[in-house]
């Protein structure tokens, strides 16, 4: 199983996995992004055991259809000490994929230093996914136009910035604009 945990060895199967609306996928990492905690929901949905995951980089579940510029934005934001909400498609150890609405926050020491990161992921609303998927496809297409990763990320980051500015004032406002209004009953 150890070989399977290496990034890039699992190929997407096209099978979508879901989890219950009342479940939360939880993980914690050290400052370098290596997993230090995973809950049982994370293990079940990702199709990895706790032993396979702990100590591994969180990007072991990175799906190839996830734009790199979103991860750059995520790391830039949380490394600066801020939280980020984002829609993310992940790749399970068996090739299935699953969408989440992620909330990622830095964890601080008593002295104010970042000592790790904490992420809670909930199910992603289908209406929001219908709106974000074409944007991610555009970002991926832009990334694929470039042979060098830094150029690809810079170009897709610029495109994301244009999309965000056209639809909302900030990335946070853009993400929250995708969430459908919840009707109180």
From TrEMBL:
Pfam families: PAS_3 (PF08447)
Domain PAS positions: 30-81
Gene3D superfamilies for this protein: PAS domain (3.30.450.20)
CDD domains linked to this entry: PAS
Name listed for the protein in its UniProt record: Chemotaxis protein
Lineage: Bacteria, Bacillati, Actinomycetota, Actinomycetes, Micromonosporales
């Amino acid at each position: 199983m150890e070989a399977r945990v290496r990034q890039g060895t699992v190929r997407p199967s096209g099978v979508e996995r879901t989890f219950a609306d009342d479940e939360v996928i939880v993980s914690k990492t050290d400052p370098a992004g290596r997993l230090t905690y995973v809950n049982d929901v994370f293990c079940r949905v990702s199709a990895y055991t706790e032993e396979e995951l702990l100590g591994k980089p969180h990007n072991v579940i990175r799906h190839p259809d996830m734009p790199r510029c979103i991860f750059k934005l995520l790391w830039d934001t949380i490394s600066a000490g801020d939280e980020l909400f984002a829609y993310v498609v992940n790749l399970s150890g068996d090739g299935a994929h699953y969408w989440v609405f992620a909330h990622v926050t830095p964890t601080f020491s008593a002295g104010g230093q970042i000592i790790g990161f904490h992420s809670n992921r909930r199910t992603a609303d289908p209406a929001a996914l219908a709106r974000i998927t074409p944007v991610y496809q555009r970002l991926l297409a832009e990334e694929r136009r470039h042979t060098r990763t830094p150029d690809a990320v810079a170009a897709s980051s610029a495109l994301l910035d244009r999309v965000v500015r056209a639809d909302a004032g900030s990335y946070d406002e853009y993400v929250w604009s995708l969430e459908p209004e919840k009707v109180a009953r």
